[in-house]
Write a structure and sequence with these properties.
By secondary structure, the chain is mostly beta strands. The protein has one domain: Neuraminidase (6 Propeller). It has an eight-stranded mixed beta sheet with strand order 6-7-8-10-14-13-12-11. This is WD40 repeat domain-containing protein.
Length: 332
């Protein structure tokens, strides 16, 4: 499906005010309970704090970690039984969205769920009530690991995970807690493990295990900008912008998992932090065409591995294959 087929949605007059930026940079998650960190999002209320969660084999828990990787809060969702939580995002209403959208058997679950709860004003352990939203895709069940809430419109997007038929799906203008929310395919994407909007909503980053690409988001559609450097990670599953929009942080699964910062520059930077906000030139392309496997790595393609030798990335792919296959075959 071409990007021109995207249905325009409402656009607010201005993005919410960005939170003051706290310290950020590389850190290691030290909590022994967090062994499968699968989502990551920068807090708006608590500068320098990031929310994460395990992807499976855990209870209904969301953890806040600081810039040193220490857990500073654990939130328990009352009465929730998670099946395969894969992503977390923050809306303009100050509420967190936890996406229970994984389906490693590609079509086993007829519906998946999103849980929404208010980001706590104070850090600390607590139990909260969450609103559950039922989700189905217009073209049938699928596996997905990426959920992005637009920070201006509040609209929810999901990127499905498939090497050849992945899609970017748009939710209804507002999620309904009653009935089923149908997500409609608006563009093709490759194997996406996570994505995030910039704080001002002008950029969208998508990542896979071995690639990352940046898109300009305007008029409710993405336009390719180009690749973004991606550090080697054993099983890279998450990405978020820092609260100032000048960097992205990449996370991975595993005990004592490292979170890596990559500073952005040029057109990669969101409009509100760039010296000039003039739109970049060049034709719009679908995310799949821009960032699919085999894209060039010199900036002329859009989403392949960063400027790293082919031999190194072959070695990385071989090293990560065992972890990917093990996870794909694990029953949920």
């Amino acid at each position: 499906m071409l990007l021109g087929a995207v249905v325009a949605g409402p656009v607010a007059a201005a993005p919410p005010a960005a939170a003051a930026e706290g310290p950020h940079g590389d850190f290691t998650i030290t909590d022994p309970r967090i062994t499968e960190s699968s989502g990551l999002v920068a807090s708006r209320r608590h500068p320098g704090v990031y929310w994460t969660h395990n992807d499976s084999d855990d209870g209904p828990y969301v953890y806040a970690v600081d810039g040193q990787g220490r857990t500073v809060a654990t939130v328990t969702l009352r009465g929730v039984k998670l099946r395969d939580a894969e992503a977390i995002s923050l809306g303009p209403d100050g509420r967190l969205y936890l996406a229970d959208i994984g389906d490693n058997l590609d079509g086993t679950w007829p519906e998946v769920w999103i849980y929404r709860f208010t980001e706590p004003d104070e850090l600390g352990d607590r139990t909260v009530d969450a609103t559950r939203f039922r989700v189905r895709y217009e073209d049938g069940p699928r596996n997905a690991e990426a959920l992005m809430v637009h920070p201006v419109t509040g609209r929810v997007y999901i990127a499905s995970k498939h090497e050849s038929t992945g899609g970017l799906y748009q939710g209804p203008e507002a999620l309904s807690p009653t009935g089923v929310n149908t997500f409609r395919r608006i563009a093709d994407v490759p194997w996406v493990t996570d994505g995030a909007f910039s704080p001002d909503g002008s950029r969208l980053i998508l990542r896979g295990y071995f690639w990352a690409a940046m898109y300009r988001w305007a008029n409710n559609e993405p336009t390719r900008i180009g690749p973004v450097d991606l550090p080697f990670q054993r099983q890279g599953e998450s990405v978020t912008f820092t609260a100032d929009g000048r960097s992205v942080l990449y996370g991975t699964e595993g005990a004592r998992s490292a979170v890596k910062e990559v500073r952005l520059s040029g057109d990669q930077l969101p409009d509100d932090v760039r010296p000039t906000a003039a739109p970049s030139s060049g034709p719009a392309t679908t995310p799949g065409a821009a960032a699919g496997p085999g894209a060039t790595t010199d900036g002329s393609g859009s989403g392949g591995p960063p400027s790293t030798s082919v031999a190194l990335w072959i070695a990385i792919a071989a090293a990560g294959a065992v972890f990917v296959l093990r996870k794909a075959r694990r029953p949920k």
